[in-house]
Write a structure and sequence with these properties.
mainly alpha, two-stranded antiparallel ribbon, 61% helix, elongated
Length: 85
């Protein structure tokens, strides 16, 4: 277990160093290209990662719903009636 953790730490250090080296070289190559510079900055801050949550099934009144339209309808029903509870 300790060996695995040490190897994992070593791998993470190597990955981090490689990432720093890559971005340093890319910034150096594109120092006169503002569009590419901002694209690189966006990659560093993970601006381009889409964060989405997909609901694959929902339980309502003891029944599972798996179709997207059914799930949407059940969620809409719930949120329309939230203040009535």
């Amino acid at each position: 277990m300790i060996r695995k953790k040490l190897n994992n730490n070593k791998l993470n250090k190597v990955k981090s160093a490689a990432k720093k080296c890559y971005f340093a070289s890319q910034f150096s190559l594109n120092k006169n290209n503002m569009k590419m510079t901002w694209k690189l900055i966006g990659m560093i801050v993970n601006r381009y990662k889409k964060k989405s949550t997909f609901i694959s099934k929902i339980l309502c009144d003891g029944k599972y719903f798996t179709e997207r339209k059914e799930i949407c309808d059940k969620l809409n029903e719930h949120f329309i009636n939230v203040d009535k509870i």
